[in-house]
Amino acid sequence: MAATSAATLPVRSSISFGPKTGAFPKYHxxxxxxxxxxxxxxxxxxxxxxxxxxxxxxxxxxxxESSASLEHxxxxxxxxxxxxxxxxxxxxxxxxxxxxxxxGGIGQPLALLIxxxxxxSTLHLYDIANVKGVAADLSHCNTPSEVLDFTGTSELAxxxxxxxxxxxxxxxxxxxxxxxxxxxxxNANIVKSLMEAVAxxxxxxxxxxxxxxVNSTVPIAAEVLKQKGVYDPKKLFGVTTLDVVRANTFVxxxxxxxxxxxxxxxxxxxxxxxxxxxxxxxxxxxNLSDEEVEELTFRIQNAGTEVVEAKxxxxxxxxxxxxxxARFVESSLRALDGDGDVYECSYVQSDLTExxxxxxxxxxxxxxxxxLIHSDLQGLTEHEQKALEALKPELKxxxxxxxxxxxxxxxxx
Length: 413
Ligand SMILES: NC(=O)c1ccc[n+]([C@@H]2O[C@H](COP(=O)([O-])OP(=O)(O)OC[C@H]3O[C@@H](n4cnc5c(N)ncnc54)[C@H](O)[C@@H]3O)[C@@H](O)[C@H]2O)c1
Description:
Layout: H1 12-15, H2 24-28, H3 38-45, H4 63-82, E1 95-100, H5 107-115, E2 120-127, H6 131-139, E3 146-151, H7 156-160, E4 165-168, H8 184-201, E5 206-209, H9 214-227, E6 236-238, H10 241-254, E7 266-268, E8 275-277, H11 290-301, H12 303-311, H13 319-336, E9 342-349, E10 357-365, E11 368-372, H14 382-412
Parallel strand pairs: 1-2, 1-4, 2-3, 4-5, 5-6
Antiparallel strand pairs: 7-8, 9-10, 10-11
Helix pairs in contact: 3-4, 5-13, 8-9, 9-14, 10-11
Bound molecules: nicotinamide-adenine-dinucleotide.
């Protein structure tokens, strides 16, 4: 983010991350979010010459309310400056977010994006190694939140105390040739042990699971929470936002639409054929040939492999994942902050199908999932209906594998 000195820097790319997402009515008819305050943008980017900054961004992944909060925060900041007073930027809400696995490929850019949220007062970064430097680096960004680092299991409990949202990207990423299920044994153990600490220290928090295979790690997390007697299905989320972000991008490019206008619900799970983009429910409404549906569906389902292969052994999707996870965190914080208009796709405990966990659009509220959007599974095309039936056995097996993993360990113990 090279925005520290250029007085006339166009800040669009520094602050505008994409569409305002998550708000269901706007899903149908996205309304512009003007982040037009010079002070807002300038302060956030650290620009010195406030008056020469222009911003035409209509949308921010931070969302309308957050952007408005930012605008307010920085507008008042400028007033104080003008008055010659010392100032300290204050967040507009005081939520605490923890990232477990914060020194990793996803964790670092995710921490940076969350550090930019005006809704966060404290950001806890936990990892088994290398997190001190990440926190020191981030703490120099002049955005409101405080950054604290926690290293190793002896500091895990403290990293979770009082946290409102805990995000878990800890684990091993996919290497070329590996499927998500190959990761199972390593990541299942990591998620299980982290969830035990979450259950003990912040059982009321929103829990966002990124570690793959999400189709199994979410059921693992649920089992751990059940065993500890603190399971609240409304607050446990598998992060599938990247599937939506990719679907939106690929469809917009294919149909030559403005990226910010496109929204595709993605349901099912988060691996291969369990990822089901409901292209017939794309907003705005589009016409796709059968070939285009096949091609887009395949690309959305295999986009992770595209990145794994392009990185050739150096990891899986990290930047786009961080972007997607930051969007989901921001949506959760807006819901916690009382916004009654927040919708996202997520892999959650569900009764939409016969499977106990299923990704769909959900309405988020202060207490977590307020509603599942049943209408998304109604009026499917023949292709979508077939794909839905085809994904169920694989998703069911992944769910059962996760549950069995925790139950076996409990029996052995
Ligand atoms: N949900 C999604 O859409 C999605 C997308 C991409 C990647 N992923 C998954 O996210 C995970 C992380 O990917 P990455 O690229 O950041 O990997 P990475 O190896 O770069 O980072 C993982 C981090 O986790 C840390 N870690 C390992 N064990 C830990 C433990 N017990 N406690 C705390 N931290 C621990 C590591 O030290 C490392 O810093 C992988 O499982 C990957 O498959 C999910």
